[in-house]
Amino acid sequence: MKLFAQQLRQREFYKYDCGREQALVKLDGVYSEIKDLEIKIENYGYTAMKFGNPNLIEGCNKQAEGIRTECGNMKMLWDHISVCQQIFIGYQNNTWEKTEPYEMEDEVKKLMKTLKDMKVDKRANAFSGILDEIKKWLIFLPLIAELRDPAMRDRHWNAIRAKVKSNFVVDDKLLL
Fold first, then answer.
1. For residue 7, with 0-12 CB atoms within 10 Å meaning exposed, 13-18 middle and 19 or more buried, which class applies?
2. Which residues contact 107 (CB under 8 A, 6 or more apart)?
3. pLDDT at res. 120
């Protein structure tokens, strides 16, 4: 059980680039493996009881429960990652006219708080991947707020167009 628990952290669903769908499939596989291990533990428990030491498997049962909890936490993390990514895609598809950077920033801060409150391994690549993405949005949104300021004039936009080397038009068709 100890070896299984150690090797579990090396699995793909701990990596951010795995993606939610594949991570959930991999997590379901772990639940199947845990069931098989629990059957073995039960058999060992029967043998241990025959020899008068039924408490020998208590550690294994606790580890199996810990692994189940860890997998449940990873599933919640992947669900949160999915929610964050859907929100960010929605932001990118916002038209410039409908972009509300202050409300968006508040929502991203709530996503950050939810992420940090999760009982998941903070060193996991999946955790740090979504954390980095959220941090980028928290840097990006104040810049958008400045650009949405009514004080922005055509000369300011012309300077931005020259800087980014793109001849975009600020109208209701411009996407964030």
1. exposed
2. 87
3. 92
Pair 108, 138: CB distance under 8 Å? yes
**Cα–Cα distance list, 68 to 49, 79, 142 (Å):** 25, 17, 40
Angle between helical axes of 125-147 and 58-92 (0-180°, round to 10): 20
What pLDDT, in 10s, does the model give residues 54-99?
787 888 888 888 899 999 999 999 999 999 999 999 999 999 988 9
Q: Which two tokens stand for residue 51?
A: 């020899």
Q: Write out pLDDT tens, residues 5-28.
A: 888 888 899 999 999 999 999 999
Positive or negative: CA dihedral 154, 156, 162, 168? negative
Give the residue from 36, 112, 27 showing the smallest Cα distance to 70: 27
Q: What are phi and psi of 95, to 5 degrees?
A: -75, 155
Question: Alpha-carbon distance 43 to 18, whole Å?
Answer: 35
